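To whoever is on call:

I kicked off a structure prediction for a single chain this morning and the downstream step that reads the tokens threw a length-mismatch warning. I double-checked the sequence; it's 106 residues and nothing unusual in it as far as I can see. Pasting both halves so you can look.
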Amino acid sequence: MIEVRCIEGRWAPMVICDICNSPIDRRKPGWQHEGLALWVMDDSTESGSPLHVHKGLCDRKADTRDALMGSEELGVHLFHLFYNAGYSVKDVPHLKELSDMLQEIG
């Protein structure tokens, strides 16, 4: 899920694991901080809401063998959202400056 949380007095949008309710933050060491987007597909639906989960224990807890699951790396999933909303890198003219600022504040 996506939430806005207050971190050290600053409000920040974050991807939160739907299983353990902790932020997914690949800047932390270890593969278990990487994320996946998972979704269940069946013949009766053409849409659904993805789960955002940590790799490993959380994605195994979300796994349901009775349904076909799709998945993609979280970074790819977020890029697809950006693209499917009609955006491109050109639409963020100060992308490097924004990235630098966000790295400074953590």
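Update from on-call: the warning came from a stale cache, not from the record. Cleared it. Sanity check on the structure: The helical segments are 57-62, 74-84, 95-105.
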